[in-house]
Amino acid sequence: MRKKILITTITVLLISTIFTTPSFTQSYSRSITAWFNNLTLEVDGVKANLKNEPFIYNNEVYVPLRELSDHVMFNYQHDEKSKTLKLKTNRNNNKAVDNYQHNYEVIDLRNQIVELQKEIDKLQDGKFPYRKISTTLEMENYLKEHFKKLKDVPMNIRFRHKGGNKYDFSAVFSSNDLNKWNSLSRRDIENWVDDIFYVTRDLFNRNAEIEGDFRLTAFNTGIRYANYWTRGNRLFFDYKLADHKKNQMVDGTRIENALNLQIKHYHNASFTYKVFVNQSDIDIVVSYNHNFNNWTPALKMQYLTRLRTEVEKLYDSVSVNGRVVNSVTNQTELRFSFEGEDIRSVDLLNDLEKHLNLHYKHFYYGGHTLTFTYRVNESYSGSFEVIMEGNFTENSEAWQQVRNGGEVALRYFIQSSFDHIESVWDVDIFGTVRDKNLNSIGDVEYFSTSQYGIRIVQPIIFQ
Q1: I need a labelling partner for 291 at 20 to 30 A (CA). Which of 93, 144, 275, 433 fits?
Q2: Taking Cα atoms as reference points, which of 187, 203, 185, 189 lies closest to residue 119?
Q3: Range of the structural domain that residue 46 is part of
Q4: Which residues face 36 on adjacent strands?
Q5: How, if at all, do strands 429-434 and 384-390 pair?
Q6: Cα–Cα dist 305/293, whole Å
Q7: Which residue would you say has higher pLDDT here, 355 or 449?
Q8: Is residue 247, in this structure, part of any structural domain at all?
Q9: Rounded to an integer, what distance in angstroms lies between the CA atom of residue 264 and that of residue 273?
Q10: Using one digit for the tens of pLDDT, what is the confidence trace for 269-304?
Q11: Domain count of the chain?
């Protein structure tokens, strides 16, 4: 049953400005009868918590404008001097159909905030004390002070500048600690390097990219047990093969036999498999004799998906690192890892970039040919970031024609290239169009607007 409440001396200047057309030269107050019916507000399916309850008056629903603006993402200003309510939406001067609320980007930014908060929490809990660092030597000393051990394994650390934003971070452990090293899980190792990566960026250089390795006894000549490198905002790892195939947790021989039986032949290529085990982690070496290096990125991903499925039939909770090797030249063609439901491969990303730059580089519009170079990186929230760098300037006639009338044509062009990315990785994509001077001139988003819908490129936002 609705609650009927008599409201006295409500100032109706705000209500009249929004919902009625008459203008008033002076404010005044009057008594009205409004209905409060425990109304709640949902925005895009998410309940909005309002301090002031909406009410019904003259068959119209009234919602507090100031609170509403926070949830539908427009700016609100009450100019008392001019008696004007000023609303600023996200429409641009080109009047393009771009009143999307950047749903995916907002979600992605929220996830970034969560990740940044985790970093702040790490600093605040005293594990990694904050210190402003300005030189490579200071960074090395900080790491030596706070990262002396990886679990119970003492580490000798080296940190060197390689040029630009690239740094070499390497660690050496003693032969006396080899058994301790072998008892480490992959998660232990990767978390330790991850922490070093984040403090390097947080305290020293926000754009730092680190690469390096773990070696036994000596930095340059010792046996390499693992190496790592940065791609975008993520670290990738490669592990030296362990010396045993079986332990109480995972039977490497069983996996090896299954792979050699189930996927010895795939799409006109022949493979042999060797599996090595370290605790609950496994390394797979795949050797091929022909054809694999000619496969498209999409076909390589199909093969990796099948490989992961065969491993999961036997063990569904192991981490996998692997490589595909040419049996004739012994050259590694593809490195990969399986982490939960994710398949990661920096080499496959490189193959994907090459494919895009070969088949999706030219865009034709208005008698002009615009050429793009693609760069693809893993980003936050399981998404991809794609940067499209053009061979033109933002003030060029070719780009201005696209900007003024070619948004739909450019969108269809990008749709085809992003569809190809999706055929390899099932991910949402956000991207940036840049001119040859690296100026950002357009924002692109590629996602599905419904739970089971196909992904599409949303209207491009020109800068």
Answers
A1: 275
A2: 203
A3: 3-88
A4: 3
A5: parallel
A6: 17
A7: 355
A8: no
A9: 8
A10: 899 999 888 656 788 999 998 889 889 999 999 999
A11: 4
Q: Kindly report, residue by residue over 180-234, the tens digit of the pLDDT.
A: 888 888 778 888 998 999 899 989 998 899 999 999 888 888 888 888 888 777 7
Q: Return d(Cα 99, Cα 90) in angstroms, integer.
A: 6
Residue 405: CB atoms within 10 A of its CB come to: 11
Residue identified by tokens 């908060």 is: 117
Residue pair 430/379 in contact (Cβ under 8 Å)? The answer is yes
Spell 282-319 as b/e; 16+ CB within 10 A means b.
Answer: bbbbbbbeeebeebebbbbbbbbeebbeebeeeeeebb
Residue 400, H or E segment: helix 397-405
The answer to whether residue 73 is domain-embedded is: yes
- The CA distances from residue 9 to 13, 15, 22, 30, 189, in Å, are 12, 13, 20, 5, 68
Q: Is residue 154 part of a domain?
A: yes
> Which tens digit of pLDDT belongs to each residue from 65-85?
877 776 676 666 777 777 788
- Would 102 be classed as within a structural domain? no
Long-range contacts of 308-312 (CB under 8 A, 24+ apart): 308/338, 308/343, 310/258, 310/259, 310/262, 310/263, 311/255, 311/259, 311/282, 311/284, 311/338
